[in-house]
Amino acid sequence: MLELNEKNFDATLQETKGIALVDFWASWCGPCRMIAPILEALDAEKENVTVLKVNVDECPALADRYGIEAIPTLIFFKNGEIVKKKTGLYPRDALELILKELGA
């Protein structure tokens, strides 16, 4: 999974085909660490889903830009536009259902 920052965020989203699932996280966050293996598996298994990560401690401007108030926050983008935003720890089946609803 690619780690995004202020320099590569916009360009990476524009270049991503299919669904870009951006995980806003921090290393000290327990639920963030718990959801990480689920996101890694989805990234590896779903051809039209790209999981990207933004560390909120290292990229506070991006966290502010997207109104991140709690982590983990998952923002789903399609063609560079936000199509869904979820906060909290979600099980894999719930994430797969969301991706299916978005056409992934």
Task: Explain the overall architecture.
It is a single chain. This protein is α/β, with parallel strands linked by helices and 104 residues long. The protein has one domain: Glutaredoxin. It has four helices and five strands, in the order βαβαβαββα. It has helices spanning 9-15, 30-45, 60-65, 92-101; strands at 2-4, 19-25, 49-55, 73-78, 81-87. A five-stranded mixed β-sheet has the order 1-3-2-4-5, sandwiched between helices. β4 and β5 form a beta hairpin. The chain starts with a strand and ends with a helix. The mean pLDDT is 95.
Main sheet makeup: 5 strands, mixed
Radius of gyration equals 12 Å
Structural class, from helix and strand content? Answer: alpha/beta
Low-confidence stretches: none
Cα shape: globular
Number of helices: 4
CATH class category:
Alpha Beta
Number of domain modules: 1
Percent range of helical residues: 25-40%
The end-to-end distance, rounded to whole angstroms, is 18 Å
What strand line-up does the widest sheet have? Answer: 1-3-2-4-5
Assembly category: single chain
CATH architecture label: 3-Layer(aba) Sandwich
Q: Looking at this structure, what is the CATH superfamily?
A: Glutaredoxin
Q: What's the β-strand tally?
A: 5
